[in-house]
Amino acid sequence: xxxxxxxxAALAFAAVAAxxxxxxxxxxxxxxxxxxxxxxxxxxxxxxxxTWKWNNANPLSVSYVVGLSPKGASTTQRCEFEVTRTWYQxxxxxxxxxxxxxxxxxxxxxxxxxxxxxMANSIGxxxxxxVNAGQSVxxxWNNANPLxxxxxxxxxxxxxTSTSPCKFEVTRTWYQxxxxxxxxxxxxxxxxxxxACSADILMATKTTTTVSGTGTMxxxxxxxxxWNNANPLSxxxIVGYSPQGATGSAxxxxxxxxxxxxxxxxxxxxxxxxxxxxxxVGSIACSANRLLATA
Length: 295
What we know:
Blueprint: E1 4-7, E2 33-40, E3 49-54, E4 62-71, E5 79-90, E6 96-104, E7 111-120, E8 126-127, E9 136-141, E10 149-158, E11 166-177, E12 183-191, E13 198-207, E14 211-213, E15 222-227, E16 237-244, E17 251-264, E18 270-280, E19 287-294
């Protein structure tokens, strides 16, 4: 039976290893999505986290996105929650699980509605190849068109043994524009388990008409943006970038973190906001179109 399960135990991280760049791929079509489950977290203390899992995460060709709708803000304090980690696990026997951690990043105890969406793979899955425990691999998807599409990476791990699961986490995603104008989507995957194994890489895309510019940002600079009246409250947000202004070097933008807030306005009405930070991680000053899609 498929169900959402809360996990109380802490999870160990594998050691960091060298990065390996993989071959490029080609463009992909848009993706459809389905709401798999929704539930309330209960009250969570400020600074505390909860870890949940979705077992029997079938079919093996879907990726997952978590949305949050915080509840319990006061007139003076926001209720704020963030998805701090997500990862995929294969158990011995072949069962796939999707794990995720949410954290109350605000200053008061409150709760959140949790929405779990599955998104169909829009490409043919390709393998990481064998990856040692603690090792990371970096790959990219070239001709990442259309330019108003945001990307989501999922995985279907393979190689669990009777004593150890196979576990992979996406630790970083970013977008590049090459000097010739081509957009690329880059991502780093890490084997966070204790055994060498592999994973099939899945990719979902969502196009959007919610597009706005960052303005020119210097290399290494960051910015904070937010989307107020983030309705419907059941929507999960996906951020993408379409960098602009590559010259002799690529223009590169990366999403660092994103979180959801509930605020109580002066008229007493509750409002959800979606907030995120991102930056220019390249070596030149350039800009990007910010893409805000929903699952």
